[in-house]
Specification:
The protein is of the alpha+beta class and 113 residues long. Helix content is 42%, strand content 12%. It contains four helices and six strands.
């Protein structure tokens, strides 16, 4: 169920409000959780399940931002990564769409299978 999935995400979220894959906290995993939450009508900036120490997962994603508006893949990287930047921008678009009641980022409900 969705509730179980949300509980699992909460349990694997890192203390700095990021998510990881293959052992590395990264922009892309964190961005995808933001997109999913927005799709469910959950504000990732205010939902207490996705906050730690006064920060939220958007803050966590922003911790990967470098000067020049590019995102690095992981905290150990010193250079920006195109895929990381794309995923972060998609998360920002999902937030914008949610804030302005413009629907979900990924919405295929009008298409027939």
């Amino acid at each position: 169920t969705i509730d179980r999935a949300l509980a699992r995400l909460t349990s694997v979220m890192k203390e700095n409000c990021t998510f990881s894959s293959y052992g590395a906290e990264n922009t892309e995993s964190t961005a995808q959780v933001i997109i999913a939450l927005c799709s469910l009508g959950i504000d990732p900036r205010t939902d207490e399940r996705f906050m730690r120490g006064g920060k939220n997962i958007v803050d966590g994603m922003q911790s990967f931002l470098l000067p020049g508006s590019v995102y690095r893949h992981s905290a150990n990287d010193s250079e920006g990564n195109l895929m990381s930047t794309e995923q972060a921008m998609l998360a920002h678009i999902a937030l914008y769409k949610a804030d302005h009641k413009l629907g979900r980022l990924y919405d295929f409900s009008k298409h027939k299978a």
